[in-house]
Amino acid sequence: MTLTELQRNYRPGTVETILVRTSRIVAPILLDNVNAISDIGLEGDHYQNTGGNRQVTLIQAEHLEVLASMLGVDKVAPELVRRNLVVKGINLLSLKGKKFKVGGAVLEYSGECHPCSRMEKNLGTGGYNAMRGHGGITAKVIAGGVIRVGDSVVISEGDNDVA
């Protein structure tokens, strides 16, 4: 197989946690479902941004386990990393340059989600550095729809979906 062919092989992921924050500093609100609004973001989230690149943030559940290990704690709660969607089973960096379906919405990879200084406060000493390379991705909402806990995360049909 060629590298291009290998990059088309994906296993679907699953939405494990949904979080929104009504303003910048407040604690995230845990939801069972959320409405993704085309070219804006997630309903109720302060990062709604018409035309912006950071409309939705995603992190891998597996990276929460890595962070816990690096920080010497049993568990890192999803609320502490301040991402909108926690997904499991799919490598988010493999979505670079792709559109992907999350439940009823279509998102498009727009960049890596680097940690901010709040990670040191939320995770404790070393939290910022632990998050480097494990912060997940940002995405734009290409087509709106409802996203629910348990929904699949798959490459969209227009991007050689094989899942």
Report on the architecture of this protein.
The protein is of the alpha+beta class. Helix content is 18%, strand content 33%. The chain has five helices and eleven strands, in the order αβββββααβββααβββ. It has a seven-stranded mixed beta barrel with strand order 1-6-5-9-8-7-11. Strands 4-3-10 form a three-stranded antiparallel beta sheet, with no helix packed on it.
**Within the largest sheet, what's the order of strands?**
1-6-5-9-8-7-11
User: How does the helix and strand content classify structurally?
Assistant: alpha+beta
- Give the percentage of residues in beta strands: 25-35%
Q: How far apart are the termini? A: 18 Å
Tally of alpha and pi helices: 5
Give the strand tally: 11
**Shape category:** globular
In angstroms, what is the radius of gyration? 15 Å
The proportion of residues forming helix, as a percent range, comes to 10-25%
Order of helices and strands: HEEEEEHHEEEHHEEE
Largest sheet: 7 strands, mixed, barrel
* Average of pLDDT: 90
Weakly predicted, low-confidence segments: 159-163
